[in-house]
Structures are given as structure tokens and as C-alpha cells.
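Interim report, section 4.2 (structural modelling).
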Amino acid sequence: MINIKIDNTERSVEEGQTILEVCRNLDIEIPHFCYHPGLSIAGNCRMCLVEVKGMPKLMTACSTLVQKDMEVLTDSDLVKEARRGVLEFILLDHPVDCPICDKSGECDLQDYNFDYGIDKRRSIFPKERHKVEKVSEKIYKNDNRCVLCTRCIRFLDEVTETHELTTVDRGAHTHITCVDPEGLDNNPFASNISDICPVGALGLNEFRFQKRVWLTDHVRTICQGCEAGCNLNVDLHTRQTALDPNLGPVVRFISANNYSMRRFFICDEGRYSYSNYNKTEERLLHPELDGETVTTEEAGSFLKEALSSKSAGAVVLSPLVSVEENYAAILLAEKMGYDLFRPSPYRKDLPEPALFIEKVKAPNHNMMKLLEIPKVTDMETSDYDVVLVLHSIGSIRDNSLVKILSLLKRAKYSIVFEVERSEFSENTKLALPAPMFLEEDGCFINSGKRIQRSTGGLGYPESVQPLWKWLFGKDFSGPESLLRKFSKEKLGIELDYDKIGQEGVEL
Amino acid sequence: MSEYVLFKQLIDPDVRELNHYIKLGGYEGLKKALEMDPTAVVEEVKKSNLRGRGGAGFPCGLKWSFMPKDDRQKYFLCNADEGEPGTFKDRYIMSENPHQLIEGMVIGGFAMGASVGYIYIRGEFKFIADQLQKAVDEAYAAGYLGENILGSGFNFELYLHLGAGAYICGEETGMIQSLEGCTGQPRLKPPFPAQVGVFGKPTTVNNVETIACVPDIIRKGANWFLTIGPERNNGTKIYAVSGHVNNPGVFELPMGTPLREIIFEHAGGILDGKKVKAIIPGGSSAPVLGPEHLDIAMDFDSLKEAGSMLGSGAIIVMHEDTCIVEAFARLADFYAHESCGQCTPCREGTPWMAQIIRNIENGDGREGDIELLYDICVKIIGRTICPLGDAAVFCVKGALDRFRDEFEYHIQHKKCLVENKVAIYG
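Predicted structure of the assembly:
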């Protein structure tokens, strides 16, 4: 640790970091376009210039390492003047078409311009115009808005190493061009360039003209696609407007930075999986007994009867379901002396493991491994009177599926707790509707043994209840109390949602 | 006339041939250097006060001493891009006295422990590169290049590389990028080339003229070099005089020769006996000087004191019938055209300046344009990755400072202050 002064305040900071990183950790904003935590330093936007005492020129905060006794000014008049200068230069050729730009509302250029920009154009010269171009099936490019930060180029050069984009021409004519549209089509990570674009130059065709971002609610969740546990920012469409009556509640998934995991990007499979959570036809919304819709009370009395039968029982947990819901089932099993099992997760339509796509296609598989829950296929007997199966959106291996189905068919009291109608709910006595991951807070343990929190921003329908409510009613105040109990009893540590925070805790 | 250090072709017109070069003491410096300790060679160059002739005037020996002393592969690069407008000096060293450059490269390579050298020549100099290649082949055949040079056990390979016509590739990191086969865009410093240069290895880049000074410094000793030119600005300098003079050309003179002597004695005075109006002393990036500076000594420190710089020593003379606005509109266009497009202030600022000056020149200037130009200058200078932005500002701001009245006249009267102005082409 070394001592430096930032804006005349003494700070103790870690050595080897840049001024920008230090300031980010201290919540001091330094505007920047080209810097991205997951990419190399380009230093070309010149937006992050700060004053360093003793230096003849302004220094780029993104590339200057902090040194002992350094004095940095991030908010001096000179620095503000420099920011104003850069913004004016950028806007010389920028169309300022925010009203029709999809980035509007979450655009760095827009934000910085409000803070530091000039309000009057001083150039009288016409702007250079380019046509909007569809560079791939998924992505469009609008050169007029581009600030040439080269984040997209560096992403494709350094992260995916596929090099589809490059700059061409020189000086003010410089622009970005796609040299391999087919490559971009087939690149399983290409859509990240729309997220990392600080302005509206690169966007997703699917999201184009769909929704103003300030009309959405944002929650931070964990991708359900595989056990990598990538962080997502989810835009939820909770305020219907006359313009978009047909939009589902989940508008889009975008990547969320997780500095502790050093993960800043998501795969396209995960990104476009948001539509899975908009389907309503298959959704199980009411409890069903023998295929007939019943009331919550009727379902509850069947549950009570089943659990008072005192015969042998089995609980099949789900790697697709959160820690809290699984733990509620575990508590039941422990109370009743039931056996615990887990299925093997599998999804054959997903791409091969690459970069941050993991082989196991379930978000909570590592919880099963951590607790050493035996596989359902390794089950020695199948004579259980009471069977509880947890399931969610996603799929499990065929042999596990067959085994669970046979369990359900042979049991006297078969109970399935799931989100969407599946073969399980068709072959069970009681089907309980479960909230999906965006409807209820929950934690997931990823392949790096990091427990991360997913926020339920949507809230679940009235007829739907989480499992702990079905099983324990008012014994728990909410999912957080289950997590507290789980971490204390199973992990031997004290955890709560605040401690897990946005970036999770490594176990 | 002083002695010729670099232009040995003026002593022997056939010095480009190896045996003629050797007759004039060629490769003696190399022999002497190879018997010395590499650090002693660096010290000798340091002692000679040899300063970089490419523009910045950075002490050459000091630059060499920045190279790490470990046994990593190191590279020695010669910057023969000669892109600065008005400069045409290095070409005559390469075409007429190429062995001196080659000898300097080998000595430099030996001093810094670099076993590979590249000469980055601008693409337009293809015919010069061919001549230089001939000399390189000769030097290889005679054992001055290649393995075990003169039985010393030192190896040095020398390659020529043709540029593709970009001003920015005269900037050392831009050149390194171009040499690697990438787009010629300067790199962010630090790391400096002495740590991470071409192909990620320690690299030193020097101008042709600088390197060509080295053999004689080693052969005759640093003390001999110190006898030429004023203190801290030692040696001879090649001045390339162009513009409105009777005898434009290149002249090798001791550093610190008065500007008046260069223009009126060597370059034959001003065309048609007219008066001097403006002199750019060191390539277009040096702030322009006026007739009152004619008695200035042409060396690094004197010009710096006068608010300009020696740069590459390219003197552009403009006489009284020149429209300054037109001339600098042309120069501002040059910088806008040559900006690499990487960092924002230069990419956007240089064309904006060029557009405004072109507008003023066309009679469409508006009140406040001059203040706007000054403001753009402030927003570019010192805020770019490489010095191209600074160079454009020096050029434009120098003209605004000195000839503000002419710009104002253009804006107010929508015409040129100069009657019967001479044409500027391009």
C-alpha cells in the first residue's frame, strides 16, 4: 500500500494500479471511453486526462500507474477544460441523434456531455455521413456515432481472437469496418461488442427501436445457462407503454462487470436466452392435482397428508434451482429422513465449452457437488412412497430423466415443484408452481465455488409460491433467512445478501 | 568552408563506393570501436554532445545508454522516413555516402548490444533504397556486416525496409508499428522503445544524420567533435533550404551558422531580390520566424530561445509576396491529412483547424475564427498520444502569433493583404 493524494485527500492505495482503477475503487468518477477493465489499454480517447502534480502535461488516468506521494487532481478546472475539449472534438462529427438512438439513456457520451460538455456547436462545417450497416445477423454498426475507442476491435482481437473488425483509413476519415461478416455471424461472443460500445455505434438488431432503456427496471442476476455463473444486468419491462404492448417482461440480458471474477463478457447463448423467460404458454401458474387445477389450500392439504405418511421418501434436488429452494428441500429431507438425490444436468443444444462457456449447463451444479449429493442414477432402490422433485427451466440428462419419471410413477405421493409444464408435471400427482429465477431472490454457486446472488425483480404471481413457503410457511421470513441458515450449517460461515454483495463470495 | 563530416561526396564524388570510402578513413571508426568496450563507445558519443538530428535534439549518447544491459535480443533502427515537410537531407547521405550510415549502424549496434538493424526508408525513396542496398551488399561482402565482423566476434545484420508513405511513420513508435507490419499508429508511452520496442524487444531509433555522425566521432574522438559548433550543440548540421531562394539545396555547415549566412551566402539570397517575410527554421512543425531573426544562430538552443526549434534543419523561406494564410492553409491540410486517426484531439482537431484556415483563405472567415483557432490549439497541444498534434499546433499557432494581422485582414476584407501574391501549389 502506498499513500497518494487524490483531489487533495490523502488515500492509501494498492501499488501497481492505474490512477483510473484506483479512482474506480474509491468511487471517484473519471470519464473514459476507450478504457475497459477486460481489455488492453489503448489510451486513444483522451477523455481520462487528469492533472498529476509535477508533470508538464495532463496524464491519461487509464495508463498512468500510481506512485508513492503522487498528487492527482481529477476535478480541476484544467481537467474539466480538457474533457470539454475532447467532447467537443467528438461531437464535431457526431449526429447527436439521441432521440432515435438505442444507447440513449445509458450512453457514456451523453452522460459526460451533460456533465462537462459545451452546449453550443462552434464548428460550421458539415458532418461526415455514413450509412448504417448490418455487420452481422445480430449486430448493426452506425459509424456516425462511433468515437473510435476501438473497444470492439480489441475485444475481438484479445478476447475471442477472431479479428473481425478493424479500423480503416486515416485521420478524420478513420472508421471501423467488418472484414469478416461471416465470422461475426458465427462468433458465439460477438454480441458483447454492443455492450462494450460506449456509444450507440454498435447495437443488437434484436433490440433496435424496441425499448427506451429508461423505461425499464434493472436487476442484477446470474446467467442460468451454465455453471460459469456470469453476471447479468437484466432489463425488465414493467411499465407498459402504448408503443410496446407485445414486449415480454424480460427485455434483454446484458453483461455485468464482475471485477472479483475478472469477468466482463457473456456468451451470446446466455444473452439471447432471455426469451426463455418470456414464454407464458407453458408456464405452470396454479397447483395441479392429478392434472386438475386446485386451490392453494387443496394443494396444501395434499402436501400435509403426504408428509404425515411417515413412509420412505426421496427428494430430487435441482442444479437449475437456487441455493435457497434446494436448501428448503434439504431441510425437509433432514426433518423427515428422506434420501437426497440430484440429476445430471445437460443441454445438448448449447455450444461447445469455450472461453467462459462451461460444460455443465446448470447454474447451481456446484452446490450439489459441494454437498456431495448422490446422483439419482446411482440410486439403489426405487421404492419410495413420497417423492419430491425440483425442476426449473432447463434440461437434465436423459438417463436421469427416465429414472426420475419412474420414481414419480411408483410413488404414492409424488410432488413436482417446477416453473414450466414438463414430463414431470404430467407424471405426478401434485404439481406445484415455482417462481422462476427472475421472480425470487436466490443464490447460485458457480464452477469457481463462488456464491453469487441473483435478484428477483419481477415478483411472482399470487398463485405461485417458493418451496420454503409451501413447506415451512412462516418459519422463515424470506429467502435470505434460508441462506443464513444454509451458510451457517452447511458452509460453516456467516453469509447474508449484503456480504455476498454484487460480486459474490468465494467459498 | 569547414570540414565535411557527413557530405564526404563533396571531397570525393565516388565515396559511395566502398574503396573510395575507405580511402577517406572509412570503417576506421568501426575498427576502433570494436576494440573498445561497448560502454566506452556510448560514453564517447555522450561526451561528444551529439544531439538527435531528427527533430527533438535529444542527446544521442544518453538515448543509447537507456538500452538495458541484459542479453535480450535488441534492435537498432534507423529512421530514414524523412517526412517532415521541407526536409531533404538524409537522402543525400543515403545515396551519396551510404557507407558512413552503415558504419554508424554497426558501431551503434555494437555499443548497445543490438545484433539486428533496420533502416526504415520512406517508400518514395525506392531508388535511393536500391543504391543503399548496393552499399549494404558491398559491406556484407567486405565483412563489415554479417557474422564475426572484422574478426571481433560481433554479429550485425542490417535490413532495409520501405515505408508506405505516411508522415506518422516518422514518429518512432509509429515506425516500429509499421515495421512490425501493423498500421502506422504511434504507441502509448511508457513503455518506451528502450524497454519494449520493435517485436517487443528493446529498441533504439535514431535519425540517419545522427547515426552518420558516429563513425567520425569514434575515429577522431569526441574532443574533435566538440571543436565544431557552439557548446552543447556540437557538430555539423545539414541545412536543407527551400522556398523563395535563388539556390535552394542542402548545405553541410557547422551547427550555429547564422541564418543570414545560410540564406544569403549559401542559398544565394532571396528570389528577385525581394524581402524576407517568413522563415520556417526546422521543418513545417517549427514555429515560423520573421526577418528580425535573420541573425539567429541555427542551433538547438538558440532557436529554442527564439520560440522555435531546429527540428530537422529544413529551412523554408517565404518572401514578401507570399500569402501567409494560403501557405499555412496548405500546411494545416497536411497535418489533417497525415493524422493517424487514433486519438481524439488530433484526429478531430487538425481537420477542424485546416477547415477554418481554408475558410479564411477562401474569404469565408468569420469574426472569432482566430480566437477559435487558438482555443483548438490549446485543446490539442500536450493531449495527444504522439507529437503530431503538437507539431500541427506549433505550425498553426506560430503563424497566428506572428501574422495575426494578415489573418484578420483576410477575415475582414475577404481578400488577401498581399498584392501580386505568388502561387502556392498543392
